[in-house]
Specification:
Rossmann fold; single chain; 22 strands; alpha/beta
């Protein structure tokens, strides 16, 4: 087979084929012109003209790269290249013949036209005949796996085209399913659109495919669940396509198809942002991101790079996290396409001198503050560090931002800041208050905060822990059967943070619409099912009881708060923040805490927090401790006391 030949040998074979084709088409043109009876008087002219034809047409074919294409994947693009090459070759031949007209008197003018048509048929036909015969041979010699594709739009077209262009994969598409009634009964690449998505069970029964591919990036989670349940019932593999942004760019390849994940089942709509507005907001600006190596910080970096800032400063305390993101950008970031200058800085937001030096060096215009301690149970044991990093760190950074007249400052906050029951939530609420206050007091920097719930697959979050527990054979631990959380994917959250930053006027706390809350128990059950196992039978789910600082449910705002919609349907703004009050002499109190934090007892830290956040009710509160739910009884009547299990963030 040709794929075993060296590239040079393949090119030589193609060259020989085209060389022969040039001669055959030229002589064939004479046969056609004279009804296959060429008068002997034309023999010398044919011999003389053939030399010029070879010189002209071979030169054009080489210059157009006609020998670099692979016949196995001959496509319409190759046909257009052949058409262009033949047109140029015949045109050059006409010019050369016109310059030597005295030597070629008596030539029929139609010869070169016929030559062009014949040459096009031989070159194009030869390539497509080779591809077709190769596909037929492969289909005869190897058993092909049957595929049912969900969707008949652009994504399905790209996936189907790649399958059809790669017969060595031995895949056969049996049909497409799509809810668009206008597509029903039509054909895509010669393959029928069989019907609607809700008929998937019928067509699986009829065609018995080996695999289902979901080729609709925006398909709701409820429909994915139904398709997945059919696939599991018939023991069929089910894969899905890459994100919508890759589809819009035409970047869909077979190696990007992946197994269905839990996040695909969360029934979320695709987030859209004002791309043009964001480009105007970021392009040619200097941007600094704190916590740039973390889950949210690193994704913010990826999103920001799409809009071509002049400089992107990645400020991160963890050497390993910064190294990891640096290595990623080395392999994925193209300086030839994106002119952004990347700067990797190891530094702590509590180090005012380091921050000042960094700002002095790069003069950022936009600052996204993602650095924070986020682990709820750990912060319950380390109150002083939570306040120092999340509150004092935000204050120090904000002062440096003011000193250097930064245009925009955005704090990444959390829904745990609403009526906080945890130290982490209270510390983020304090950071929100500082941000809001500074936004109202100055008219140079636009200070704002963006509050949202949990992000899927972030470091230390519930999904990685569930996967680890599943890998170990279970059980999966959930704190309470009714506990719910808001979820968003990391790219979704990052895109909306940037959109909110663009909308900021100063002093706002933006709230992201997280959709409906998800039962953590159901999340665990879906993860088990996706692994081909049965919840409670193959893998048990154990309820361990709420932990310190943990709520059954989270809130993005308090019911009596005044909430206003923005121009973006997924972004709200809390008007109450415009009237939020900080304690009297709050800056002096914060600076005093900075100097004497190691001398503060936990009780004094709680009192300090309550000066700022009177609504804070934590596990230091006796009443809440008494109301905390006990360990949930197991099926065998015993109580769960798995105190040694890893802690995680919901």
């Amino acid at each position: 087979m040709t794929q075993r030949l060296s590239p040079n040998l393949r090119r030589f074979i193609v060259f020989v084929f085209d060389f022969i084709a040039i001669g055959v088409s030229f002589v064939g043109a004479f046969f056609l012109r004279f009804d296959f009876k060429i008068p002997p008087v034309y023999f010398p002219l044919i011999k003389q003209g053939l030399l010029w034809v070879y010189l002209c047409q071979t030169a054009v074919f080489v210059s157009q790269g006609l020998y670099r294409g692979l016949w196995s994947f001959a496509s319409l693009r190759d046909l257009f290249l052949i058409l262009k090459s033949v047109f140029l070759a015949v045109s050059l031949t006409v010019i050369v013949f016109a310059m030597n007209w005295n030597r070629l008197l008596g030539w029929p003018r139609s010869i070169l036209v016929l030559d062009g048509f014949l040459l096009l048929m031989i070159l194009g036909g030869g390539r497509f005949a080779f591809r077709f015969s190769r596909e037929v041979i492969l289909s005869w010699t190897k058993k092909r796996k049957k595929i049912l594709i969900i969707g008949a739009g652009q994504t399905a077209h790209l996936i189907a085209r790649e399958f059809l262009q790669r017969p060595e994969l031995c895949k056969k598409i049996v049909g497409f399913l799509d809810d668009n009634p206008r597509l029903s009964g039509f054909r895509l690449h010669g393959i029928s659109v069989l019907g609607r998505l809700d008929t998937v069970s019928r067509w699986v029964n009829k065609y018995n495919p080996n695999e289902i591919i979901i080729a609709i990036p925006s398909l709701p989670g409820t429909k994915i669940k139904k398709i997945l349940s059919v696939a599991q019932k018939f023991n069929i593999s089910c894969r899905t396509c890459p994100p919508i942004r890759d589809v819009l760019l035409g970047n869909v390849h077979l190696n990007q198809l992946r197994e269905v994940r839990v996040e695909d089942l969360l029934c979320r709509n695709i987030v859209t942002v004002n791309e043009k507005g964001l480009e105007n907001f970021v392009k040619n600006k200097k941007v600094l991101i704190t916590g740039a190596g973390g889950s949210i910080g690193s994704e913010l970096c990826r999103q920001i790079l799409k809009y071509n800032p002049s400089v992107l400063v990645l400020y991160e305390r963890s050497e390993y996290n910064l190294y990891r993101i640096e290595q990623e950008f080395k392999t994925t970031f193209s300086p030839n396409i994106n002119k952004t200058k990347l700067e990797f800085v190891i530094g702590d937001i509590l180090d005012e001198q380091k921050l000042t030096g960094t700002f002095e060096r790069f003069l950022p215009e936009i600052v996204l503050h993602a650095a924070a301690y986020k682990h709820v149970p750990l912060m319950e044991e380390n109150l002083d560090e939570a306040i120092k990093n999340n509150v004092l760190g935000t204050y120090i950074l904000a002062q440096v931002v003011l000193q250097f007249y930064v245009k925009n400052f955005v704090l990444i906050s959390t829904d745990k800041a609403v009526r906080p029951t945890s130290i982490m939530g209270a510390s983020k609420r304090m950071a929100e208050l500082i941000t809001s206050q500074l936004g109202q007091l100055n008219h140079i920097t636009k200070f704002s905060a963006v509050r949202f719930g949990n992000v899927l697959d972030s470091e230390g979050s519930v999904l990685p822990l569930f996967r680890e527990q599943l890998f170990r054979g279970g059980p999966i631990t959930v704190t309470h059967p009714e506990i719910t959380r808001y979820f968003m994917t990391i790219p979704e959250a990052s895109q909306l943070v940037l959109q909110a930053a663009m909308l900021a006027k100063g002093g706002e706390v933006f709230l992201l619409d997280m959709g409906d809350p998800i039962l953590i128990r159901e999340l665990a059950e879906e993860l088990i099912k996706l692994s081909g196992l049965r919840p409670y039978d193959d893998i048990d789910i154990v309820y361990t009881g709420l932990r310190k600082g943990e709520k059954l449910y989270e809130e993005l705002f308090i019911e009596d708060q005044h909430i206003k919609h923005t121009v973006h349907s997924k972004i709200l703004v809390s008007l109450n923040e415009l009237f939020a009050k900080l304690p009297k002499d709050w800056e002096e109190k914060l600076q005093d805490f900075s100097k004497r934090s190691t001398l503060y007892s936990n009780k004094e830290i709680v009192q300090f927090i309550k000066l700022w956040v009177p609504e804070y009710t934590g596990f230091q509160n006796k009443e809440i401790q008494e109301n905390a739910i006990p360990p949930i009884p197991l099926d065998n009547g015993e109580k769960s006391n798995l105190v040694v299990l890893p802690r995680y963030i919901h």
